[in-house]
## 1
Amino acid sequence: MLKAVHDAGYINPTPIQEKSIPLVLMGRDLMGCAQTGTGKTAAFLLSIITYDLENPTLGSRPPGTPFSLIIAPTRELVMQIASDAESLITYTDIQVATLVGGIDYEKQKTKLKKPVDIVVATPGRLLDFARNNIVDLSQVEIMIIDEADRMLSMGFIPDVKAIVSRTPRKENR
């Protein structure tokens, strides 16, 4: 991961990264608020990837069963987060899947037939896959709700609650 961080041009952590990453790696819940462009996405991606590399899954999870879930309100944001994640996992065996509306359902479904570590999704498409038993959220250890304020203002509260109810109890994630 350090090589990928170097390749991405990161030299020094931003204030949000410096303050949040150690807390997350200690297993603490965190709510972060900072302006656009301050490194929030990198902060949670670096935390997720570090956690996964330092705490490998014993055995294997079934296909379509991620250890980490990132939900975001728009397809564009999901695709940007997934792109950032892909660049940071270049030298690892971590697998990312994106689930968004407006993109071929079958292609996304095919990706979930293989082991996947991180799912980045919009709430509606994620619930569709979960309700059809294509993605299983029962082993999620880390859950990120990106742009939660925007998601709530867009009316995603019921979807977010339905997603959270499919993950392990708070004390187990």
## 2
Amino acid sequence: NSFIHNMGGMGGMMGQPLELARQDYLHGISSFLWIAGGAGVILSLMLGWVFSRQIVRPLDNVAAAARRVADGDLEQKIVTGSYGEIKDLEASFNHMASTLRQDRELRQNMIADIAHELRTPISVLQGNIEGLIDGVLPDTQETLEVLHNETLELARLVEDLRSRKKS
């Protein structure tokens, strides 16, 4: 019986190094998992930042171009090299800028045309009135009719402008 007891004692002594090895192994695994988890978190944050920059950078370009358009610089064109929805946004923005440029050109041409059309009757009125004031033109019915016709022409031009604004 004491022999068995002594053997059990030896078995207990042999179990102790095994238990220490097991604890060292579990501690090593635990440390590895913590390090791997930390590295995974850091790597995922870095990749998330890189991918978010790929999305945010083209949007920053669109926002900057939109601010320049709002300030009156209609020569903006965006080329981001992106894909998907950002590419659609790029195409829409470029179309909008192009349309605004064309509208501005049309408006400038229309204003030039209007100024030209108004200049003629105003010049006739001004010349005839100066002639009347200086006594060069006689104060006759015919002179007053010319002046009246020019005022009617001005009224017609203004009415045309007003009616175009409504349509």
